[in-house]
Amino acid sequence: MQIKKILLLGMLCAFVIFASAQNRISGISGQIKSASGQPVSGATVKIQKTNYVTVSDEKGSFKISQVKAGNYQIQISAVGFKTIKKEISVSENEDQKLSFSLAESSEDMETVNVIGRTANQQVNRQAFNVTSIDAKKLHNSTLDISHALDRVSGVRVREAGGLGSRMDFSLNGFTGRQVKFFIDGIPMDNFGSSFQINNIPINLAQRVEVYKGVVPVWLGSDALGGAINIVTDNTTKSYIDASYSYGSFNTHKTAINAGYTSPSGFKVQLNAFQNYSDNDYKVTTDVASFDGRYFRNQVVKRFNDTYHNETIIVGAGVVNKSFADQLMFGLTAGKNYAEVQTGARMVSVFGDWHRRGSILMPTVKYQKKDLFTKGLDLRINGNFNFGTEQNIDTVYRRYNWFQEYKQYPGAGSERERSMYKFRNNNGLATANLTYTLNERHSFSLNNVYNSFNRKGSDELFPQNQNYEQPRKNNKNVLGLGYKFSPSEKWNTSVFAKQFYQSNKYAQSYNPSGNWGDVAYLQQENSYSKTGYGIASTYFIVPNFQLKASFEKSYRLPETDELFGDLLNLEGNINLKPEQSNNYNLGFSYQAQLNQIHRFSFDGNVMYRDAKDFIRPQLNNNQTKQVNGNLADVTNLGFESEVRYSYKQLFTAGVNLTYQNLRNNTRFEQGQTMESPLYRDRIPNMPYLFGNADASLFFNNVGKKGNTLTLGYNVLYVHAYYLSWPSQGTADTKYDIPRQWMQDVNAVYTLGGGKYNIGLECKNLVNNRIYDNFSLQKPGRAFYAKVRYFFSTNRS
Fold it and tell me: How far is residue 564's CA from residue 389's CA, in Å, rounded to a whole number?
């Protein structure tokens, strides 16, 4: 492991010391219109024999930054139009502004794809099974990133309550840490509780990429079931995006995103957001009073569930320099406060227990294209989180849902007396080296190193030796990939990943057999695994794509799974790495009829064969979750999505996901008889769910250029069992009932998008909505949001 650290440090020093001077780089921008003068969105703009490529936006505008001086050939192509090529000359310190007029193609005009290849659709055209969300279309909503993802086929976001509550993310049957999260390609493993996807506003993202099953090597992760990559605004434009929303349960959300790039290349960015909610919504539950009476189906308010977080991200550096396309130094700082209302189920209720967390993370980012030679690109990132987490449980009481409590004498707690405060000392370093030999061949080398060392103390128990025991973890993922692109119709990627993890911990034991005699035995273990995969895509016609992929993936146990989260998850140091063979076969078809009606059809069949599958279950006293390994789990399922739009006036879509996640462990360890749970559906896991949405657009409302949008979204989740289907009888089994949740919204946009007002109603008909172990979520809620946005482009 020391060698890997030295290699990473050596690479960092190498480009600083030996980077040769390059020509001053310039920018190319312009606009693309049809022969009739209409803007052409989604047109591909490519500089031949280079890796410079972009797509035009809704106004037909495009921009390519960081182009070196020289003579080039630029190619403009769009479905339904004839491809054109033009020779251009780029001079030092001189930005090019171009305009193009595309002639319509007579071929396949009745079925061409006019949905266009925006940046999101370029991502979707990869060989990987990936869905890209255009986050900009949701910036006027009050959604956080997790709830935006909840509308994607194959995705279920399951929460323990309202704003800031514990969250479980499910992607094609894989849950929790089996799915990895990234921000601009950087793993979020060490960001702590103050920076999670269910408290990050959607305005922070430009798009969100959902990789299902097979994860590209450049993300450098040990994800078992997929990855989420949040892509932020990394352009050189100057902009400000500020919003505030208020709604039910005294919920306040504020977000400010701003950036400035000077003509000399100095760049500064600011992202700040705040969330607050009392989360005092009503739930229906059984209540036991302290005088022995029992009340069924009582409607009560949650009362110990306040949540707030505040986060600021600042960065400053330079862009478009000879030694760096981008060199940025930054700091992420924030804190959160979360009251704990329930345990793993609503039968446990707490009145004073709470948690605090913070993030203090310096960062460095470096990017350089054409390092030493043309086509060699380097990207390096590093961060270290000095943040803390604290669990505070010091009130010796027992509460019920009527907010009544029974006070006990002496020093005690609601669950486990604690003021334990700890720091995970979590560091991360990533390096990615990509070499594009030519248009047909490219190579990628990626390395991610992560260190963890939990240290803490409890002022209530200063002599407790348990807090002094080691909880250390080091992880490294090394990946190598190759992409072969013989033509525009076909490309294939192959890759291999090497996974390594070492853990150091202590196990308690009783050396004398006497009560209260505790000693600790120092333990170490390590794992080394090799994975590999392939992804390929073929376009039968320009608007009909087939894709297939396979990966033998591994996922190393996470620190919370090994050591616990000191909240509702017990640690299990005996967890083994999980592995899975992931298969995907899918298609995508996009078309237009009569140049008015637009359609898109997407479908995917997946099969997962996982060994040592890590999944949560209730512990022995039913108050916490604990993770364990299942020997063999399989999942055969499908997902599909259909979208339709009429001119620029109406759009609608529906998606559906089915996943047949089964326990394939025929014989339990040490048993000769077939397990009664063999081929049982995995419990507490939705297996049939979907979303539908529709939007109406009214132009020039009140004034020319103003737009009114009315939207509707519905979520459906089929009923599923809380425990194993083979256990118990139909009368005694707990289940999570079928669920419908409907949202409506209205957005009024003024000044060409500069001023925006949004109104939302979530859970319109006030249905009971449940997730993990029947924990009830908020009912009907209303929200209002105001947003100001201004942007000016710089080349």
Answer: 13
Compute the distance between CA of residue 84 and CA of residue 73 in angstroms, rounded to an integer.
10
Report which of 372, 356, 271, 275 is spatially closest to residue 323, judged by C-alpha positions.
372
Sign, Cα dihedral of 356, 770, 635, 631: positive
State the pTM of this model: 0.81
Contact indicator for 208, 171 with CB cutoff of 8 Å: no
- State mean pLDDT over 16-41: 64
Q: Please calculate the CA angle 451-455-458 and round it to the nearest 5 degrees.
A: 160
What's the CA gap between 622 and 568, in Å, rounded?
10
Three-class secondary structure of residue 326 per DSSP? strand
Inter-residue long-range contacts of 461-470, CB under 8 Å, 24+ positions, other chains counted: 465/518, 465/520, 466/508, 466/520, 467/420, 469/505, 469/506, 469/520, 470/504, 470/505, 470/506, 470/522
Beta-carbon neighbour count of residue 748 at 10 Å? 17
Residue 24: the pLDDT is 43
Contacts of 525 (CB under 8 A, 6+ apart): 502, 503
Count how many residues are written for the chain: 795
DSSP letter at 345?
S
Q: What number is the average pLDDT over the span 738-759?
A: 94
SS (H, E, C) 119-144: HHHHHHCCCCCEEEEEHHHHCCCCCE
Whole-number average pLDDT of the chain = 86
Check whether 279 has a pLDDT greater than 90: yes
Contact 654, 641 (CB under 8 A): yes
CB contact at 8 A, 529 and 580: no
d(Cα 575, Cα 577) in Å, to the nearest integer? 7
46: how many CB neighbours lie within 10 A of its CB? 19
Q: How far apart are CA 72 and CA 49, in angstroms?
A: 9
Average pLDDT of span 14-27 = 43
Q: Can you tell me whether residue 620 is helix, strand or coil? A: coil
d(CA 77, CA 88): 16
Sign of CA dihedral 712, 718, 722, 723: negative
Instruction: Give the start-end residues of each E strand in 248-306.
Output: 251-261, 266-277, 282-288, 294-301
Q: Which DSSP string do the residues of 93-128 spell out, in sequence order? A: T--EEEEEEEPBP-TTTTS---S---HHHHHHTSSS
- CA 547/CA 550 separation, integer angstroms: 11
The dihedral built from the CA positions of residue 328, 333, 338 and 344, taken in this order, carries a sign that is positive
Query: Closest Cα partner for 614 from 575, 560, 568?
Result: 575
